[in-house]
Structure prediction request, 644 residues.
Amino acid sequence: MQIRKYALTDWLPTTAKEVKKRGWDELDVILFSGDAYIDHPSFGTAVVGRIFESSGLRVAIVPQPNVKDNLQDFTKLGRPRLFFAVTAGSMDSMVSNYTASKKPREKDAYTPGGETGFRPDYASIKYTQILKKFFPDVPVLIGGIEASLRRVTHYDYWSDTLRPSILVDSGADLLVYGMGEQPLREIVKLVVRGVPFSSLKTIKQTAFLQDIKKPLPKNKHWEDIWINSHEVCLQNKKAFARNFKTLEVESNRMIGKNRILQENGNKILVINPAYPAMTQHEIDAVFDLPFTRMPHPKYRKRGPIPAYEMIKYSINIHRGCFGGCSFCTISAHQGKFIASRSKKSIVKELEQIVELEDFKGYISDIGGPSANMYQMKGKDLSICEKCVAPSCIYPVVCSNLDTSHKDLLDIYRTVDNHPKVKKAFVGSGIRYDLTVPSYNKKTNPEDLKTYLEQLVTRHTSGRLKVAPEHTSERVLKMMRKPSFKYFHEFKKIYDKILRKYHLKQQLVPYFISSHPGSDLEDMANLAAETKAMGFKLEQVQDFTPTPMTVSTVAYYSGYHPYTLKPVKTVKDRKAKLDQWKFFFWYKPENRRWINDKLTTLGRKDLLRILFEPGYHKKSEKNKKEKSKKKKPDNSRPHYRRRRS
Prediction:
C-alpha cells in the first residue's frame, strides 16, 4: 500500500488563511480548545470537529487561543453563522495545570514540546467569557471533561471552594456532558433546520440555565428530580453530599428517564437525562471519520506533543468502565456501560497504523479505560435497564455480567498475527480482579487462565500495570475496590506464569495515599505488606480531589454520600506528605522519620518488617515450621460423634 501524503486542507482549518484555502467565506461553527489540534480519534477536539464536518457544517478549530495578549485569537475568524463551541481539552484544565500538592506542573502533555502556559486555569470559563464579551449575541456551547464534571454544584480543590454549575460562571448557553457525539448530532440537526439555539431545551445529555419564573420545558417521557440548591449546599455539607448520590444514580442508568433540577440563585439548572451508550455501529462510525491521525502541520517546528507520541501507535477498542471506583471520573464522563468497536473497525485502524511512514512494527496499546472490558455487557439487558448500581464488579461481580475474555483474546491474536506487527502490547491498566477465579466466580477459570497467559507472554512490555490502590480493607471499601487478598492471589497466578514460560517481567501495582478514610497506620501497613511481597513502589500518587466523584464529595463534606456517615480525611499538606512518605520507606532520608512515627503509633513490629534484613524470609520459614507441628497425628483413630 502506498503511504498517503496529506495536504494542509486535510486538517480542519485553524487560521483565516486555511479557511480561505478551502474557498469558504463564512464559518458555521468555530471550536475553541485548550489542547493543541491533533487530528486523531483519541482526542475529543478532533472528534467534535469531525462530527460537525460530517453533519455538513463548515467548521474551524482555534487550538490553545492566547488569553494574555489583545485576544485577537478570539476574533480572527470572525462570527460563526450558528454558534461557538468551547472545550478545555482532554483533561480538566486544573488537573492539567497543577499537581496534587497544587504546584504548577512542569509539562503539559497536550502542548507541543510539553510546554506549559498555553492553557489558562478554568479554560472553559475563560474562553466563554471572552467570546461573550466580543460576540454577546452568538450562542456558546461548552463540553468536554471539564464542563461535564462541573455541570452542577461541585467542590473545586484548587480554590478550596464549592462552586456553582460551570454554566453560571461561564455564561455559556448550553452544555453537553459525557461523550458528545449523540447530543451534538441532534443539536446540529435542529439548528440547521432553523430552530433557535434558545429553544434547545429537551435534548438528551445537555444542561442549561433558565429563569426561575419561567415554566420548565415539557417532556412527557421524563420525570423531574429536585436536588438541594446551590445556596443550601453552601450552608450544609451534608446536603451537598446527599446531592451526589442522586447525580450518580441517574448517570448510571442504562436508559435515562429523570431530569435533574437545581436552583442557582434566580436561575434553575436543568440537566436532561443521558443517551444510552453508543451502539457498535455508532462508535464504529466515529472512528471511521476522515482523521489524518496526526497533529496539525503548524506544530512541526515546536517539538513533539507527548500525549500524541504516547498513543500514536495504539488502538482504543472501547469506551466506558463499569468499575465504579470512588476516586475515578471515567464512568462519570464515559458511562459505566461499555461501547465496543467491531473487530472490522479495529482491524481497519490497524491497517492505517501499519502504513504510517515511521511505524516500526510495534503497537503500543490495545486498550481502553480498563483494558480488559471489551465486549463485556449484561447477559439479560432487561436486568441492566433496571439497575442503578455504580459498579458491576463491586462488592462482587454481578451474576448478570458476561465477563468472558474470548472476544478480547480474538482481537489480541488478530493484531498479533498481522504480518507487519512485530509485537502488540497492552499498555492500558487491566482490572486484575476480573482475572482472579476466586473473585470472578461465574467465569470459566480456564478462560481466565488462557487470557492472562496470552496477555503476559505476548502483550506485556516487561511491565504489567494493575491497580490494587490500597491494602486496608476499610479504605478499599471506601474506594469500591476488592480486598487486597485478591491481589495476593493474582500475584501468585502471575508469578506462576512467569515460571512456566521462563519470563523475567515486572508487576507494577498502583497505590494512592491520603484517600478519604486512610490514616497514617493504614499507610504504614501498606508499606509493610507491599515490602513483604517484594515491591519497592514507584507508581504511586497522592489523592487529588476532582469534581464528580464519591471520594471528592467525602473529602470536602466529611460524609459518605451514600450512607451520610462521617469519613475522616487528611487535608493539610504536612499530613498528606506524611502518608506519602510511607511509599518510600526504602529511601535513607525517610528511615529515621518512619522509625519515630511507628514508635509513636506503637507499631514497632512494622519496623522489623521494613528494616530488618531477611525478616520476611525468616517469618515465612517460621510459619511453615509451625504449620508442620500443628498437623494432626494420623496414627490415632478419629471417631465421628453420633447425633443425639
